[in-house]
Specification:
Length: about 120
């Protein structure tokens, strides 16, 4: 009897909660990505045709980028696998729908923004 717990090694291999959430804070917010997509659509440009500058710090020298998910990839094949993923398809569906909430919307909902009293009809 006694000794180490046989399940101890399994716990060490799990991803910690902190590392799983770390990438969430590095991404652009939904409203910033939506604004970029609208800007490209107004200019009549495709999101894929955009020429990217070479950056040695980014994966794949910054050449393989998904605008909807705000992610860089190491190669074209990894980017193509990402395009077929469920996460990317959900993100495209969210970005093609109505505009996401902005900080102004959040402030108005919390009662911190300017009140909307409607149109002034007549001044006496």
């Amino acid at each position: 009897m006694g000794g180490k717990c046989p399940h101890r090694k399994v716990k060490k291999r799990r991803l910690s909660h902190k590392t799983a959430r770390r990438g969430k804070f590095l991404l652009k917010a939904d409203d910033a990505v939506y604004d970029e997509l609208v800007k490209l659509a107004d200019q009549g440009k495709d999101a894929e045709a955009k020429e990217l500058p070479v950056d040695e710090d980014l994966p794949g020298m910054g050449q393989f980028y998904c605008l909807h998910c705000d992610r860089y990839f190491a190669s074209e094949s990894v980017k193509d696998d990402h395009y077929r993923s469920k996460r990317h398809k959900k993100r495209v569906k969210v970005m093609s729908g109505p505009a996401p909430h902005t900080q102004l919307d959040a402030e108005l909902a919390a009662g911190m923004g300017k009140p909307d009293n409607g149109l002034k009809l007549m001044s006496m």
